Amino acid sequence: MPIIVSVPKETVPGEQRVALVPELVPRLTEAGLEVAVQSGAGELAGFFDDGYAAKGARLEAEVFDKADILLKVQPPTIVEISHMKEDSVLICFLQPYTNATAIRALAARQITAFSMELMPRITRAQPMDALSAMSTVAGYKAVLVAASRLPKFFPLLMTAAGTVTPARVFVIGAGVAGLQAIGTAKRLGAVVEAYDTRPAVKEQVESLGAKFAEAVKEQVESLGAKFAELGLAAKDAEDKSGYAKAQSEDFYQKQQEMMSKYVASADVVIPTALVPGQRAPILITEEMVRGMRPGSVILDLAAEQGGNCALTEPGREIVRHGVVIIGPMNLPSTIPFQASEMYARTVTNYLAHLLKDGGLHLDLEDELTRGPLVTHRGEVVHEIVKARLCSENSTP
Questions:
Q1: How many angstroms separate the CA atoms of 317 and 307, rounded?
Q2: For this structure, is 121 an active site residue?
Q3: Which of 137, 160, 173, 317 shows its CA 20 to 30 Å from the CA of 14?
Q4: Which value, in Å, is the radius of gyration of the alpha carbons in the chain?
Q5: Could you tell me which of 12, 14, 69 has the C-alpha nearest to residue 36?
Q6: Residues 136-175 pLDDT 10s
Q7: For this structure, is 87 an active site residue?
Q8: pTM as predicted
Q9: Is 132 noted as a catalytic residue in this protein?
Q10: Could you tell me where the beta strands, DSSP code E, fall in 51-165?
Q11: What is the pLDDT of residues 228-255, one digit of tens each?
């Protein structure tokens, strides 16, 4: 019997993405898999049932109970998990550090669950890096949202009514989302400054335009972003997987003090600093918000983990001290067509990695297989997630 790969319709409110797009169905069927897509699964993203059918997918009213491999965007609900086949495989954004109940339920049903957030940031994993793909979408959309709320033009304009000065944008955190925000803000004509604690990232920002290194001069001049020199780089700001590490409270306090002038002079501030599994660090205090010009905008890309601004309210747009503070949730879902295409490619690439001779082959010695693996054979096997669960169980 062929392995059945199923794609359900997402049920989380506001989620418009889908885990597989029609153009990738042939890649799975040619690998000997059978593809079943729940009717209407891709409609909100602009992918309709006839498109899937034309590419060889079977349309079903329900897909959970027949799936050998289930591809999702959001984590399954407890009810959805109860409908999944025992010993089946799940690949999705599992939210492993905050989703204890679902993870226990997956283990209880003997489901092998892979969390796309846990993909190691190594060269071999780049085509499977769903988190970076979605960060690209979020960084782009963040600038558009901020520009739409700013009561100013972004570019320099020479008009008959006089010269309009360009907006100033300050991006905090120059990972994938930050770099995309820098590039988008520059393309809209803003004057952009950026800052990141990681020394390696400084070089990436310079390549987008800060005038420091002769070796990157052509790239520097291509966009023109300037790296904010705070003299405060953290040598151990990355873990071995390439993700940001939390710093001490003293470090964050010094960082806040040194960033104050950049925040105060900016029309738009886009903080993006996240630490996996932890509350986002507070980088913008209420006092710093008070120092901003009325009408300025803070678009907090760390809102889903509490926010980098002390005043951010996740999922809401508020005004404090004359400053618009936006805490968006799930920005990638607001550009569902391309976000679905990008996510589906990373998931399909990862599934291809797990397949061998038409069947699932899990090499637990391979960090690409082992890294995102959360539950397997009835156990929570990811060490950090397991430690979190044990800690929760021991808390009175």
A1: 13
A2: yes
A3: 173
A4: 22
A5: 69
A6: 999 999 999 999 999 999 999 999 999 999 999 999 887 8
A7: no
A8: 0.88
A9: yes
A10: 58-60, 69-71, 89-92, 112-115, 157-159, 162-164
A11: 655 555 545 455 554 555 556 676 677 7
